[in-house]
Amino acid sequence: MLAQDCQAAATPEPPGPPARDCVAAWWDMVERNLRSFPHSCSTLGRKIAALYDNFTSKSLKEHIFPPLIDMLIYFNFFKAPFLVDLKKPELKIPHTVNFYLRVEPGVMLGIWHTVPSCRGEDAKGKDRGWYEAALRDGNPIIVYLHGSAEHRAASHRLRLVKVLSDGGFHVLSVDYRGFGDSTGKPTEEGLTVDAICVYEWTKARSGITPVCLWGHSLGTGVATNAAKVLEEKGCPVDAIVLEAPFTNMWVASINYPLLKIYRNIPGFLRTLMDALRKDKIVFPNDENVKFLSSPLLILHGEDDRTVPLEYGKKLYEIAHKAYRNKERVKMVIFPPGFQHNLLCKSPTLLIAVRDFLSKQWS
């Protein structure tokens, strides 16, 4: 029996297919690939031709100008101050925590939450959960929407946050998509979605504590865009503060310092407008305020050369005319010395803001 088993184990496997059959199969595969090669080349050729047609169907300025204007409007590539660890806000400003908010796939916003200075001692050593719960403590909340360039650690922005924190406000400093360490690419629609997302996230955690949208410069357009959408949804913003606002981006761009020197070049203004239309950059503050009912405070400096005072005045006139309740619209003009970014240095800024909001929220 053992001998039979050993014999069975030693029995060789049946021979495989002859070598010539393997060669024939390999050659068939090569022939099939060769037959499909012209089709692949044809498909690639059509793609290349389509790309070429798309490129040559537009002028060079149409290829260059929209991305260039996009860069100049948002200036988000200038991520100053440099060498700042945005994950460690405590190195720049006290009683502040960093966190991230996912808006949509591929878009994560970096945000600093600074609690009122009166809660500074309580905040020591606390985690994000404590900060989030603190939003219900009754101290008013500001969602701060900054202007173009730099990020939430810029010195003038930190100075404003400190003033507001000392005045008893929570401040959520938001870096839009593409700014700071936030992911994504900035567009007008995208920045608006970011602001709405942060506002709704905050309202869901604030209980009965009021939440105010505060926009500066470019951020004023983001603020009114977001406020209009929320108004249409039946959830008007608790209050809006517009610092150094423009009427709309088309008008503001003509006086933008980096573009002003080119506006006398023949055809420049038309090219600029075409580029803004193509990129859908409008930020129509002058149209948005016509549809708002939220308390609206406009702040502007007399010596603002980036966004001239006349734009703020014009926007106030439009809003005051459109609002049914005229007491809900107010403008405060600051004397020379604060320019575009430094209204936070005015000793009357906090007084004006607290006075207006307390009356509206009483």
Automatic annotation (TrEMBL):
Which terms does the record give in the GO molecular function aspect?
monoacylglycerol lipase activity; phosphatidylcholine lysophospholipase activity
A GO cellular component entry from the record? endoplasmic reticulum membrane
Q: Which SUPFAM superfamilies match?
A: alpha/beta-Hydrolases (SSF53474)
> Which segments constitute the Serine aminopeptidase S33 domain?
141-260
**Could you identify this protein by its name?**
Abhydrolase domain containing 12B
The lineage, from the top, is:
Eukaryota, Metazoa, Chordata, Craniata, Vertebrata
Query: Gene encoding this chain?
Result: ABHD12B
- Gene Ontology BP terms: monoacylglycerol catabolic process; phosphatidylserine catabolic process
